[in-house]
Design brief:
Layout: H1 2-14, H2 20-63, H3 71-84, E1 91-101, E2 106-115, E3 142-152, E4 163-171
Antiparallel strand pairs: 1-2, 1-3, 3-4
């Protein structure tokens, strides 16, 4: 009996006959998982890149404005952001103009508006939460801060969790000292640079 089993195993080992369909059935789940993983990771990277490019585009557009902007303008920027990213995901947008006051040694918010439900507008008291991420600026200098937040679901359930893509982009106004929002007034700060002083 022992020699019979040994003979059968040796014959099986030497046998080169095979069935392609059976081997394909063994490897198919692994191949499908690999393809799904590649597509999911590539799609997530593509979405993150599209969100960042959209934030830079919005920031650049606003930095070139010389007239006051209004709610319709912000709505159009939000719609443009949605066009630049994947259409089946929602995006929140926050646009702010931040000013540095050297005398007070802190940042102030000239104005901040949001579109979407994931973000809240910055105020003089809350902007300190991101002051480490803001650039060093001369006294009374301003930057346009554009932030986008987008929830992205994985294309396939392969263990990659759903992602929250957040972008933080700032740009200096190009053709005007500041970007004015209709109806807003510059908030905060006790600095007096003497403009209008005739004494």
């Amino acid at each position: 009996m022992k020699s019979f089993i040994k003979t059968r195993f040796q014959a099986f080992r030497r046998d080169t006959d095979a069935s392609v369909s059976i081997e394909f059935a063994f490897y198919l789940p692994a191949l499908l998982f690999i393809f799904a993983a590649i597509y999911t990771y590539f799609d997530a990277f593509k979405q993150e890149s599209a969100n960042l490019k959209a934030a830079y585009t919005i920031s650049d557009l606003i930095s070139r404005e010389t007239n006051a902007i209004n709610n319709d303008y912000i709505d159009s920027m939000h719609n443009l952001t949605k066009l630049l990213i994947r259409s089946d995901s929602s995006v929140s947008l926050r646009i702010s103009v931040i000013r540095w006051d050297e005398d007070d040694d802190r940042y102030y918010v000239d104005w901040s508006v949001i579109r979407g439900s994931e973000l809240t507008a910055w105020t003089d008291t809350t902007v300190i939460n991101v002051e480490d991420d803001l650039p060093n600026m001369p006294d009374q200098e301003r930057v346009i801060l554009v932030e986008t937040q987008n929830d992205v679901n994985a294309a396939f359930q392969i263990g990659l969790p759903d992602m929250e893509i957040y972008n933080f982009v700032f740009t200096r106004p190009r053709f005007a000292p500041q970007i004015v929002f209709e109806g807003s007034t510059t908030s905060g700060g006790s600095h007096d640079d003497g403009v209008g002083d005739t004494s």
